[in-house]
Amino acid sequence: GYDPVKDFAPVGMIAASPHIILINNFIPAKTLAEFIALAKAEPGKYTFASGGAGSPAHLGPELLASIAGIKLTHVPYKGTGPAIADLLGGHVSMTYSSVPPALGLVREGKVRPIAIASPKRSVLLPDVPTASETLPGYESTQRYGIIAPANTPPAIVAKLNAALREAL
Question: CA–CA separation, 150 vs 75, rounded Å?
Fold first, then answer.
């Protein structure tokens, strides 16, 4: 019942975290292009786990599938923990995660990172290409910020923004 553009006034950005596209080690693809080719060859066979319907880890792969022209099957979970567990177990093909929580799994070789969904490569994983290197313009970044009701006076929004900048 609300319009996210018209009903809120942006106060300020706190942080942004790009998603990393992870596949389980049972999938033969080594790159995003290879994964897309597999998914095109067998529409609907490949699955992606998310922490719930409507979550960033649900919407990012849906956008990827739309741009790439592939059909992926969404498997929603009650949180990211069970989604990652089933990725590790080979029960789902792919998931999205922010980079920090995925680092250990990637470095231990428990999952295969095939792309970072940001415009630039991650300094934490510089050998992982961006998704836009395969699909120009594709990005899936989780952003954290503060908003206020749209009718908040501009002077109050400015004061909140200044306080947020100082705190950060």
Answer: 35
